[in-house]
Amino acid sequence: MSSQSAVSCQSSSSAPLASAGGDGFARLSLAFTPAGYLPAGIHSAAPADAERLLAFNPARRRQWQGLQRFIRWAESHNTFSCIYLDGGYVSRKPAPDDIDCILQSRAPYGPAALESMMPFFSYGLDRILKEYAVHLHFWAEGFPGGVQDFRMFFQYIRPRDAAENCLDARARKGLIRMELAPDVGVVSPAMHSSTAAAASEEMEALALRESMDPPPAADCKEPPFLHDESARRTVSYSALMAQPAGGPLTSSVAESSELSAEPVSPAGNGKASRRKASPPPSASGRRKRNA
After folding, report:
1. Between 147 and 195, residue with greater pLDDT
2. C-beta of residue 181 within 8 angstroms of C-beta of residue 110
3. What is the rounded CA–CA span in Å between residue 53 and residue 36?
């Protein structure tokens, strides 16, 4: 093992200090611990501070630019209060595959919260992953207890990673929470001028990949979006929103979670919403037309 990759298992006192903010979340002098993670918990941060910590090489800077375009699209709906950043991107990993994000709705658990999520399901979570490198999840205050809270799930460290970094198996890592700006209105081309070149390169690469994808089967009976596995998650949120806490569905989800060693995200089968999504802005700032 090289000196650069060697990990010392001695305890360290170099972790940054945090203080509680008015919103109940930690105010952190953003810095990674020797193990390469943020200290356990949810840490509020300004975008500029998060960028300084996370966009530390060219690949990560491109992902950060994609995240900023996605955030502007999410803000234009004015239905989400904050976004949580987590996964491998919130670590010292040099080339994470994507950015795990959790959008939290302004509305608590109920029909309004589901309504705020529908444009993203309609557009396609896999499509969002391809175009923005954002692996998207949702949260609303008051979700039934059996529903997985991704804010807690993404603090989990895999046993293999914990062992490699000499951490206790029960160790947890931190997430970053950023506020979303309200009332920004429709996204305009000017909002994307600073990232137009990078976004153009990303979109050209996406077009090349899509041109190589095989066409759908001619005898396909289902709407195309139902072949997007992530789009089927719409059913989970739709069904849960229609159920009172403790109802048959939420009880079954809770029961399945108890039988699993790790948290289980809701899953199910049914009809996904047909509501049209307002498409996100393209690299040039103009909205795309749905296929």
Report:
1. 147
2. no
3. 12
